[in-house]
Design a protein that fits this description.
This protein has about 210 residues and is α/β, with parallel strands linked by helices. It has one domain: Vaccinia Virus protein VP39 (Rossmann fold, 3-Layer(aba) Sandwich). It has helices at about 5-15, 15-25, 35-40, 60, 80-85, 125-135, 165-175; strands spanning about 50, 70-75, 90-95, 110-115, 135-145, 150, 165, 180-185, 195-200. A seven-stranded mixed β-sheet has the order 3-2-1-4-5-9-8, with helices on both faces. A two-stranded antiparallel sheet has the order 6-7. β2, α5 (about 80-85) and β3 form a beta-alpha-beta unit. Bound molecules: S-adenosylmethionine. The site of S-adenosylmethionine has 19 residues, from α1.
Length: about 210
């Protein structure tokens, strides 16, 4: 496997570029509560993991619906994790690359990403998705920029750092055990950045 692109992008997010993102996105949680309230009332879970959680724009709300000590976030940027720990000390903030999650199989009822798969190179994208599916016992939630075909979008002066694609379709193709439960679109007016979301349920893992 060519690890060059994986290393380059992980290095980008772990370093100053990632720190600048944290500084720009201090208000990330604003306006996102309605979505999480809707989703977690309809599909309650007792444990959740966000992969690429940054400073907690989602976990701020998720941790209000999931027992706090059962709410986890992993990220590759230590600065973001320090901010998360300071703001939400009850949430477990853990350093890990998304392609190698430090959890047992099916450890969480819900595992999700928001704006993270778009930043994975094609070399590691299937690995990251496989890790997410592996760690979930029940739900996988994918919140990413959609495009029917793969489209690279220049991102803050960097090439090969942001890709729109049919992430929901890719999950279903790679992991036939995922059943689509619901999908939607969240606009800028709703506190999101015109993202598509897909909620999948894993079949064959739940006790009868
Ligand atoms: C665009 S931000 C999204 C943050 C958050 N999910 C949200 O919705 O506010 C992408 C986040 O994913 C993290 N990230 C990117 N690639 C990663 C990787 N390979 N492993 C772990 N974290 C990663 C970045 O450090 C950053 O915090």
């Amino acid at each position: 496997m060519d690890k060059t692109e994986i290393g380059r992008l992980e290095g980008l997010w772990a370093g100053e570029f990632g720190e600048a993102y944290v500084e720009r996105n201090k208000e990330a949680a604003k306006g996102r509560d309605a979505f999480w309230q809707m989703l977690l009332a309809k599909y309650p879970v007792t444990s959740a993991l966000e992969v690429g959680c940054n400073l907690g724009g989602n976990l701020t709300w998720v941790s209000q619906h999931v027992p706090p000590c059962q709410t986890y976030g992993v990220d590759i940027n230590e600065h973001a994790l320090a901010r998360l720990h300071e703001a939400l000390p009850h949430v477990n903030a853990i350093w890990a690359p998304a392609r190698q999650l430090p959890f047992r199989d099916q450890w969480f009822q819900l595992v999700f990403t928001a704006g993270v798969l778009i930043h994975q190179p094609s070399e590691s994208l299937p690995l990251v998705m496989a890790e997410i599916v592996r760690c979930s016992k029940r739900y996988v939630l994918c919140m990413e920029y959609f495009a029917q075909d793969v489209v690279e979008v220049p991102y803050r002066g960097h090439e090969g750092a942001l890709f729109k694609r049919d992430y929901g379709g890719l999950y279903q193709m790679l992991f036939p055990e995922l059943k689509l439960v619901e999908q939607g679109f969240l606009t800028k007016d709703q506190g999101w950045d015109d993202i598509t979301w897909w909620l999948f349920e894993k079949t064959g893992t739940l006790a009868p």
